[in-house]
Specification:
The chain is mainly α. The chain has a single domain, classed as Tetracycline Repressor, domain 2, CATH 1.10.357.10. The longest helix is centred in the middle third of the chain and has 29 residues. The chain is elongated and about 55 Å long. It starts with 8 loop residues before the first helix and ends with a helix. The relative contact order is 0.11.
Length: 201
């Protein structure tokens, strides 16, 4: 009798497709994701695609969600490490997101930063999936804010984080790293009230 806790072969294959598709989306953008290439990268036959998805759009929408979960888990690990060292939740989040490692990890990093302005030009289904990822990042920032910081500032902080990462990736090298460092410092100085108060006392 099959173990209900153990993923089936179909479920494992499904995850392999989503893994390959989520990497391809972040690497090449929405239009750079072909079913044939994704199935090849997943080690599966092209013909097997329709056992998992009705359309390419369905695959891309699900891959956006899948990739977002992966990047959120990675970000959570980075935040946890920093909080154990004494950082506030907001400092931990900003430092983990605006890290030099995140510049390099384009295939495994934030979906919002990877897809950016492409999101608004997609079909309603893909636009909805993308918008959910943006609001997910905003909610994550909101949850990390100190009580005295207005919750609506979360949108501005999230936007600044994404923009800084995109610009750092575009510049690359030393300039990219410098931009990231300056952005971290500016956001922490303005919004990390716990550390700002400690420094003043």
């Amino acid at each position: 009798m099959p173990d209900p806790a153990k993923p089936s072969r179909k479920e494992l294959s499904h995850d392999r497709i989503l893994e390959a598709a989520s990497r391809a989306i972040r690497r090449n953008g929405f239009d750079g994701v072909s079913v044939a290439d994704v199935m090849k990268e997943a080690g599966l036959t092209h013909g097997g695609f329709y056992a998992h998805f009705a359309t390419r759009e369905d695959m891309v929408a699900e891959a956006i969600e899948y990739g977002a979960r992966q990047s959120a888990e990675s970000l959570d690990r980075g935040v946890a490490v920093r909080c154990k060292r004494g950082a506030t939740p907001l400092r931990g989040l900003i430092e983990a997101y605006l890290s030099e490692l995140h510049i390099e990890s384009k295939e495994g990093g934030c979906m919002v930063a990877a897809l950016g302005s492409e999101m608004s030009r997609q079909t309603p289904k893909l636009h909805e999936a993308s918008s959910a990822r943006i609001m997910g990042l905003v909610k994550r920032v909101e949850a990390a804010l100190a009580p005295e910081v207005p919750k609506e500032r979360a949108m501005a902080i999230a936007a600044a984080m994404v923009g800084a990462l995109q610009m750092a990736r575009a510049l690359g090298g030393k300039q990219g790293k410098e931009l990231l460092a300056v952005s971290r410092e500016a956001l922490l100085e303005q919004y990390d009230t716990a550390n700002s108060s400690a420094a003043q006392n």
